[in-house]
Specification:
Blueprint lengths: L17 E4 L2 E5 L12 E6 L2 E5 L9 H9 L3 E6 L11 H8 L4 E2 L10 E2 L5 E4 L2 E7 L8 E7 L2 E7 L17 H12 L5 E4 L8 H23 L6 H8 L8 H17 L3 E4 L7 E4 L2
Length: 287
Amino acid sequence: MTAPERGTKSPIRYREAIRLTSTLQRVTEDNPGMFTGPGTNTHIVGTDDVFVIDPGEDRPDGHFEALVEAIGERKVTGIVPTHGHPDHWPMAPRLKDHFGAPILAFADYRGLAPDQKLEDGSILSVEGCELTAMHTPGHASDHVALVMRDENGCSLLSGDHVMGWSTTIISPPDGNLNQFLDSLERLLELDVEIMYPAHGVAVSDPRERMVELREHRHERTRQALAALESGPATIAQLVSTIYRDVDERLHGAAQRSLWAHLEALCEEHRVQRIGTDGFSAVWRLTD
């Protein structure tokens, strides 16, 4: 069966409301970077009443004005950052003041202070569309993905947990690889046809992508164990071996990612950390 397209061929364009389905629009902020890809996608969900998902950064880049124009006279029922990283939520208070809508999020997080807190399983409804919040920690402890059901079927607003253009950064101590993989397994149980991440274009085969990311993480773990067979090492030493195929500009992020793999192995008692700080510590296989 051919997967439905539903906006998968719609390119990223800044400050323009792209119609993805009858109940979903995307406005991409002009904040591209190595960790944001082409920019932060703000999704507008609904028809007459809407939810604004991942409002983005509060910058003088025209994103606020583009959102106001896209929403028009419609009622904003809620503003929902998928998590509290600074490329996802700082525009929320400005939109709240403009539209009189509450901010909904899983938890207080580094400046993000929601008016209402979501729980795992919270239902958010507007005419013709229902969102179910799933707590998906791993990339961030407060991360939620939103399962969207409407006349088009079932899709996933995946935030940063799963993206098509890049693997997700997992940065301890707030990021946790074992939690990320557990959350991924929960998402794999869903019958989702299309995925709309917070960065990059829509993904037409979510299951294939999630399996690919799971296997990538398992392979990095195998590489870490293999590298430690040569003897104890620091994270920097391990990265120079394991990530030799990765752009050196990303080695800082790779160190944080490898730290997550090593912490996960510590949780499983397969690796020991000698020292308190993850970056300066020496890591070794358990006896």
